[in-house]
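Narrative of activities, Objective 1.

The group set out to show that a structural description can be obtained from nothing but a protein's sequence at a throughput compatible with the screening campaign. Below is one input-output pair from the validation batch, recorded exactly as produced.
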Amino acid sequence: MEEDLGIIVMDSIKDIGKEVQKELSRIRKTDTDYIVPVRMDRFSNGEAKATILKTVRNKDIYILTDKGNYDITYEMYGFKNHMSPDDHYQDLKRVILAMCGHARKVTVVMPFLYESRQHRKKSRESLDCAYALQELAGMGVSEIVTFDVHDPNLCNAVPLLAFENVYATNNILEEIVRDNQDSMHNLLVVSPDFGAMERARYFAEMLTCDVGVFYKRRDPSKIVNGKNPIIEHAYMGADIKGRDIIVVDDMIASGGSMIEVAQELKQRGANKIYIASTFCMFTEGTEIFDKAHEENVFDKIYTTNLTYINKNILKKEWIKVVDCSKKIAGVINLLNNGKSISPILDDK
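Output recorded for this entry:
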């Protein structure tokens, strides 16, 4: 029912929120404004509070948030701080608390799942993603909607919480084919590691082509930026020489590993190289990508707008961003009407 639907759009995801509102109006053939306004206040010591500016009583509420938006700042003790994933997660919880349990149902739509890379525990490590999911469940959240999660098995941490893992795979694939249908020949899909093999296999099946994979051999004696550094990329799969390659992964952080994979492919005689990644963070800037593109190491990166990308990066000729707001709106519309979202889940 239209009247019971409410969408809370956090500051971190305003642009997508506006498009979701437009798409829902189009789908439902109405001019109803579903967005519930929220005010976030920040005190000078860095603490904050959330205020709901419209009733949510007995409504089906969907909270949209992007924990990766580092462009939002706040003042603390006179210093300007960029919001971190932890800040965004805390603000999400503040909004849930501000609803005071009056909503009929609360669904968190977090395309880039908080702490999703810390999804399993080794020795004396924190298990952050599992704990965050359990915390949200304890606060009354009924459902989590995320995209292309790093490890789908982490939903086992909250067996009684509805957990929907949606894929943007087809959106990216359609864009690649649309842009290059007259110039793509003898295709090969490559996974940069075994963790992305399922995505690569799906791409290969859709394109009816071969698939290959790199094995990342790491140095267990060192930790650099929270990870064991890669010392070798060993390739397994079909011959690369003369083929156009699509390299598939769920996320790009600094991008060093992805560029190394592209360089390895070029050394083995690859023709054009396209990189497909749902989330691109560019945590250490784009210098290595600019240099690699100039040297013809790769042709283009295809990604989504499901997490924040700096506007200066969006101007780069080597990046193409695919809009996924319609898919989010479709999921919300089906869930609000009590219908299965299997058609969207199957459309990877």
